[in-house]
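Morning. Coffee machine broken again, so started the prediction first thing and wrote up yesterday's gels while waiting. Chain of 92 residues, entered below exactly as on the submission form.
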Amino acid sequence: MNILGVGGFELIVIILIALFIVGPSNLLIFIRKTKIVYTEFKQKRDELVSAVEQTIEIDDDMEELKNIKESLSDVSEKTSNSIKKLKKDLEN
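Came back before lunch.
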């Protein structure tokens, strides 16, 4: 038996220590509170992971927008040069 890397003997030792520290009358209350804290921890972890993923997506979008801006600048510059050349050709 192996739960989260803890074998059967270690699990029994942990339960006995918890029973000794908390006491038999408060053990169920302790387990319920521990479960609530663990559930809240998982929710906060999931929120953090989601926020990090959104930040990464935003960074990717920003990089893509920078590339588009550079492309548009290049096109604008080429167009300006073409218009100048055309004007010069029409003047001659």
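Helices lie at 8-22, 27-91. Going to sketch it on the whiteboard this afternoon.
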